[in-house]
Amino acid sequence: MMSNSEIEARKTVLQIKDLRKSFGDNHVLNGFNMELYQGENLVIMGKSGSGKSVMIKCLVGLLEADSGTIRVMDKDITKLDQSAMDILRADIGFLFQGSALYDSMTVRENLEFPLRRHSKKFGDEMNTEQMVHEALENVGLLNAIDLMPSELSGGMKRRIALARTLILRPKIILYDEPTSGLDPITAKEIILLMQEIQNKYNTSSLIITHDVDCARAISDRMILLIDGVDYAVGTFDQLASDNDPKIKAFFKH
Amino acid sequence: MSGLNEIKSRLTNFFIETGEIAYFTKRFFTEMFRRPFEMKEFFRQCYQMGNRSLLLVGITGFIIGLVLTLQTRPTLMEFGAESWMPSMVGISIVREVGPIITALVCAGRIGSSIGAELGSMRVTEQIDAMEVSGTNPFKYLVVTRVLAVTLMLPLLVLFGDAIALFGSYLVENIKGDVSFMLYFNKVFDALEFGDIIPATIKSFFFGLAIGIVGCFKGFNCKKGTEGVGKAANTAVVLTSLLLFIIDFIAVFVTDIFYDL
């Protein structure tokens, strides 16, 4: 694990400033700020309904923020047109909470789908078959290549979804509750897999979770999202030993 | 007062939804002409919607042809006009019964399946996953499906008409000893382009309505699995209602052209 100063000396790959988002009278994000550095695992923790998923969806353009700036690899995504955003998306992987595999396609087709969209990124070097095999080998599920998503267990679905995320060789991976709904053993396997991937490809990871064990295992740094703002920032140990009752509530089990 | 408020709220929701469907339709026509064209998915949808509806449309058409002839025959016989049967059945099937029955059957089969499929994709975040991977889900899912059903429905109507006429011929052959050649000669003698062309044009609009409403309900599905069921159900109900409205307008417009 890296120290705070080591991390902050690195290049910023993702920056959010004063992000605000409301749904009617429900103010979900009230000026959220964060920075993600190259090669870092940043965990964002918050209670259910605290706006974690809203924040991550604003980050990839699935939701439009009311105000604030979001810079991904020096590009302000709030000012990008659709085609520029689509190109940028090849560098941002997103692992959905429910895996979100296309259930009318086989595992192979699920992995080929994003590749076809972004063939320009790889140019003449692209070998679809080889890339699909490599991505599935990374998650240890090459034997599931011709199965349908309905034939997979929850843990397998999560791994395949991770393989689909990895296939575009993203520079940043966003994980939305990567261990939710999984048993503790499978959750641990997913965490190990995330660490392996981070070491192998030197990706920067933003992990949204309310699972303290997951945060402890994987985080270089953590942000606590409370009342729509970045309430506290620090390493797991720093935050776990904090005396603020709002922060303590996260670590008390 | 609460009754009035209820009516006001329902009317407001009705106008909001009408506006949203109009915007969705406008977006469909805009996106349809933009690259990239999802040809593979379009042909897959044509196969799913066209080929896989053949049996249902065929059986329905056959029964409609049989029933229409069996029900009409005694009345025509009373007036000694049973020789008019092929022309009468032919015109009613081609002009009205064939298109509307086929469209209603397809609203049930295709409209509900589009609503449920897209609704389920929406609540399981598959549509979001598609967008995040750099694919325009509207183009990939909506444009391909609406185009496929719009193009397949007139073909299904023609197929349904043919089977219905064959069903009618069987009754005539069994009950009245009418030959195949005689029956169909009489049918085609009675039919004009003025019967076939308006029916085909309105079938395109029926297909468009089935596709747009099914996709709209599925694409904007909310509230988890309950929402998926609701999307499929309301897609069928709203489409069926729209089909009759389109049919009325089509008949009205055709009538104006006949008068000219």
UniProtKB/TrEMBL annotation, chain B:
TM stretches of this protein: 54-72, 84-107, 146-171, 196-219, 231-258
Membrane topology: Multi-pass membrane protein
PANTHER family hit by this protein: ABC TRANSPORTER PERMEASE PROTEIN-RELATED (PTHR30188), PROTEIN TRIGALACTOSYLDIACYLGLYCEROL 1, CHLOROPLASTIC (PTHR30188:SF4)
Protein known as: ABC transporter permease
Organism of provenance: Winogradskyella vincentii
Compartments reported by the entry: Membrane
Keywords, sorted A to Z: Membrane, Transmembrane, Transmembrane helix, Transport
Highest taxon above the source species: Bacteria
Signal peptide (UniProt feature, chain positions): none
Keyword Transmembrane belongs to the record: yes
Family, per entry: Belongs to the MlaE permease family.
